[in-house]
Amino acid sequence: MDDIHDAVFVMDASSALGPDGFSGGFYQRCWEVVGSDVVLAVQSFFRTGVVFPGLNSSFIVLLPKLKDSILIDQFCPIVLSNFLFKISSKILADRLAQIAARIVSPHQFGFIRDRHIEDCIALASDYVNVTHKKCYGGNLAMEIDIHKAFDTLDWSFLRRVLQAFGFSLVFIDWIDSILRSSRLSVLINGSSEGYFRCSRGVRQGPSFPSFVWYCKGFP
After folding, report:
1. Containing H/E element for 216?
2. Alpha-carbon distance 171 to 179, whole Å?
3. Other C-beta atoms lying within 10 Å of the C-beta of residue 115
4. 173 and 158 Cβ atoms separated by less than 8 Å
5. Are strands 57-64 and 75-81 parallel, antiparallel or unpaired?
6. How confident is the model over 173-189, as pLDDT tens digits?
């Protein structure tokens, strides 16, 4: 119960609204009224592994990267999720963060506690500055970018990776349930029309889905 309360009050109260229209500020201000129901809803997920219908529904807002964006790859998608759903995701993210550094490759710096992406950038900069010097075997520098990396992750592969790491079946089923219950609707001029289901990929950002994505790389 304390984990649920802490998750509610640590998240941004002013974040954009999801499909249900309730902000974090609503849950924080009205906690004495709605708190018991929120606790029961979150506990129900962890007890049964079932996400309530519609709870994991989100809006996608397409923000233009350029002044006159036309093509789909010229837009940046932003996902607006229901705050109530994000509570369970936040709890999982906090628990995973405690062991992330032990199981994720030391070469991965993003979204891992006590690791800083600035260190990786500084290391790459230092290496580039010495590549002109001759050394045994020669020098090689490569820049690799996985196209739509978060969008292309196969869920069945992710499940096998988590099993290989030794996560319990219950925990893996929680993640699987969250991924497979997701539904998205694109907002166009402020309005949405219907939802479609996802079949692969995870959401990007400092959260449980992003950590799960990084789990695909073994130490």
Report:
1. none
2. 13
3. 17
4. no
5. antiparallel
6. 998 898 888 888 988 88
